[in-house]
Amino acid sequence: MTISQQQPQTDTLWHAWFDGSSAPNPGKMGVGIVLIAPNGGCTEKALPLQRCGCNNEAELRALALTLEMAADAGARSIEIRSDSKAAVDWVNGTDSTEIQPLAGLVAAIREQQSRFASVSLNWVPRHKNKEADRLSRRALGLSETESPAKDRNRKRR
Asked: Residue 63: in which H helix or E strand, if any?
């Protein structure tokens, strides 16, 4: 790995935040993405997915779409943040899932990452992912105060 791959220049670094939701869980899935270009240009996407699945699948599909959007926009180096610890850990290889459909998505995302000179994927607390969360809720037709399944599931633990 070259130095430029380890430490991308800040004037060419893209930033992104993503979130995925399902309501109920499993149920309809929606994704929210915020993509910031090095020049400060911002692209937001709230997209209902035309399929049902669990919240972890929604998170992984949101990440895959984030990478697709960034590559299509010409990004070569990107720093991505999410409040999904599972998605971040699975893709970064610090944890794994034995659920085959999810493992297949993780493998596909890792392949997508090879299109970039550098990709940094980091977990952030939910309060630092508000815009992507707002967009994923909008994709499902939920207000900012309505709780998607991931909120209800977190309270049960």
From this structure: helix 55-73
